[in-house]
């Protein structure tokens, strides 16, 4: 159910784009994201910082897209989001000596500090890579090509999460006592 909730706005966006256009799809994305965040808030009684940033960026860039009737804004939203995440993780890690991944997920997974450090650097690289790739597609390809990239580009996060899981798995501490 959570997975469907996570992907619902983007699935509705793709459907609206295929049947209508980028502007209807943008409105659908904005409305679906507000509904999604409302449901998450009712379930958890809070929104994570990433939820808040995503909501603000979708509403901001979506509003600019609709108000100015210019699809470049919605196409550049992922570039800005990924760049902001990558830069925030990098500044926190190298300048402030804070590992946001460990701060956010440390209560859910017990991992050695060196593993958290590598994960943080991997996330920085992933975010900057995704920002660059989206920016390149948004700048040099049609809106339809960009939407198709967004649909088929989900291979990148899925591959990244699988690789991350494979890397993390041997480092997770088991709750079972040794026999």
Distance between the ends:
37 Å
Provide a count of the helices.
8
**How much of the residues is beta strand, in percent?**
under 5%
Question: What share of the residues lie within helices?
Answer: over 70%
The low-pLDDT segments are none
> Describe the biggest sheet?
none
What would you call the structural class?
mainly alpha
Specify the overall morphology: globular
Q: What's the order of the H and E elements?
A: HHHHHHHH
Based on DSSP secondary structure assignment, what is the total number of beta strands?
A: 0
pLDDT averaged residue by residue:
92
How many structural domains does the protein architecture include? 2
Rg is 18 Å
Give structural notes.
The protein is mainly alpha-helical and 179 residues long. The protein folds into 2 domains: 1-70; 71-174, no CATH class. 80% of the residues lie in helices and 0% in strands. It has 8 helices and no strands. The protein has helices at residues 2-19, 22-44, 49-68, 72-95, 100-105, 113-140, 143-152, 155-168. Helix 3 packs antiparallel against helix 4 (72-95). The longest helix has 28 residues, at 113-140. The mean pLDDT is 92.
């Amino acid at each position: 159910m959570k997975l469907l909730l996570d992907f619902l706005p983007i699935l509705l966006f793709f459907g609206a784009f295929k049947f209508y256009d980028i502007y209807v799809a943008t409105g659908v994305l904005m409305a679906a994201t507000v509904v999604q965040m409302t449901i998450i808030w009712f379930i958890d009684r809070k929104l994570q910082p990433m939820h808040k940033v995503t909501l603000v960026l979708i509403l901001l860039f979506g509003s600019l897209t609709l108000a100015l009737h210019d699809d470049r804004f919605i196409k550049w939203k992922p570039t800005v989001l990924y760049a902001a995440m990558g830069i925030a993780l990098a500044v926190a890690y190298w300048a402030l000596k804070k590992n946001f991944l460990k701060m956010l997920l440390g209560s859910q997974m017990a991992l050695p500090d060196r593993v958290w450090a590598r994960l943080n650097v991997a996330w920085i690289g992933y975010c900057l890579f995704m920002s660059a790739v989206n920016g390149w597609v948004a700048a040099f390809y049609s809106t339809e090509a960009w939407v198709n990239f967004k649909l088929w580009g989900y291979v990148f996060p899925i591959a990244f999460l699988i690789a991350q899981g494979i890397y993390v798995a041997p480092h997770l501490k088991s709750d079972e006592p040794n026999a």
